[in-house]
Amino acid sequence: MLAFSEFFFFNEGSVRHFLEAPGAIGKALHISELILFYCLPGSLLLALEPMMTTWPRTILAGAFVGWSIEAAMVPVAYENVPFSFFWTSVSWHALIDVCLGWVVLRRIFGTGKTLTKVFGAVTLGCLTALWSTWAWADLALEAGQFAEIIAVGLALQAAGYLLSGRSAKQPVLGRTGFWFAIGINLACWALWAAIFLPVSIGLLVLATLNGLLLMGASAGESIQTSNKLGLHGLLPLLLALPGGVLGYWMIKITGYSNEIGELAVLLVAFGGILIYAIAAISALRDRVRK
């Protein structure tokens, strides 16, 4: 999740701090701080993972993970309401971090064929190059720096996949761990919500509706399978690096990186809201049928 939230996302603050960190030790310390930061939303991801049995349920559960990042850890969700309730909590974290990074790609590299893995890796690199354009101007990003950020993201992604090399149907957290993760996230969320009253009431209502839809959505057959992830199976992931660098130079040659970046943000932000709405409607229909 850290890889997609900060490095593949090209979060200006995190990427700038990493690039400007003094030496390998400084960079390692920065990554360590980020890992600690993501322990809280990561615990919620593991707690809710058993509920991610269909795409609507995965998106709805992923929304809670996104709000853990943007409303429990930092108050970004309250900066430009109501749009900030969805961007980046839902449109990026739920759809990209959780659905793409945690479910789709982890499944591909856990059970997919070699050609599927190669395609997935190259596509990830090209999409990251396309998305990164939104930060090129502010970061004055050069090809070497882009490659460095991609490499760090891939290392974190691979480490996360290796640590999760288990059956996705077996919950990591027991009953006590589940309620601890829920409780600590709610406590942090409540602290920020109290500070940002009354605008935080809107997010509380949205989260309540999201929870009701999640519980009412049809469980269906699990979209996750046994993910026996090993180092050998992750080797094709390395192809995301040359794929990303190639994408970087192809975009650079066009001379329209700023325009591409602006369009990418609009497509991801509003497209994510549309996909979330479709998932919510699907879950609502399931609840009505019950």
Detail the topology: elements first, then pairings.
Layout: H1 2-7, H2 12-20, H3 23-37, H4 39-48, H5 55-73, H6 89-111, H7 114-132, H8 136-139, H9 143-163, H10 175-195, H11 200-216, H12 240-254, H13 257-289
Helix pairs in contact: 2-3, 4-5, 4-10, 5-6, 5-10, 5-11, 5-13, 6-13, 7-12, 9-12, 11-13
SSE order in H/E notation?
Answer: HHHHHHHHHHHHH
Low-confidence stretches: none
Oligomer: single chain
Number of helices: 13
The separation of the N and C termini measures: 34 Å
Mind describing the biggest β-sheet?
none
What is Rg?
Answer: 19 Å
Mean pLDDT value: 91
Residue share in helix: over 70%
**Which structural class is indicated by helix and strand composition?**
mainly alpha
Which word captures the global form?
globular
Number of strands: 0
Percent strand equals under 5%
Q: Give the total of domains.
A: 1
Concise summary:
The protein is mainly alpha-helical.
Your description of this structure?
The protein is mostly helical. It has one domain (2-289). 73% of the residues lie in helices and 0% in strands. It has helices at residues 2-7, 12-20, 23-37, 39-48, 55-73, 89-111, 114-132, 136-139, 143-163, 175-195, 200-216, 240-254, 257-289. Helix 5 (55-73) crosses helix 13 and helix 11 (200-216) packs across helix 13 (257-289). It is globular.
List keywords for this structure.
transmembrane helix, mainly alpha, transmembrane
